[in-house]
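Pipeline run #58 for the internal structure catalog. This entry was flagged by the ingest filter as a single-chain record with no existing model, so it goes straight to prediction. Upstream metadata was stripped on purpose; only the residue string is passed forward. Reviewer on rotation: M.T. Logging verbosity set to normal.
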Amino acid sequence: MTDFIHIKRYSGELVISQVKYPFRYTLTKKEFIFQKPNTTYHLMLSDIIGMIPYTPPTKDLQHPIWEHYQIRAKILYVLNRNGTFEKESADLVLALHPRMVGEMAKLDTFTQIA
């Protein structure tokens, strides 16, 4: 018997993909995907309400280049070994590279507020 791995194709054109081991960040023109070793977080850009800078509670989590952001979404899909789960009104706090933030800001779905 042959085991098959099923991989979902991305929606929209790939904008940027980054790896900060063991994490992978993928941004297309329609979705944002954050992958950890055993969990994947999937957000449609149309479901993102906002993204604001976030200060982690401990200094140990800070990186000299990557900055933390809190992403608020109407719907967040979480995929792990137990299945796929849909969370409503969810927050996702991530360390993002300035280039990823810049590419997200360029997309039509985001309006920058100074």
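catalog note: The chain has a mean pLDDT of 84.
catalog note: The CA atoms of residues 32 and 44 lie 6 Å apart.
status: ready for reviewer M.T.
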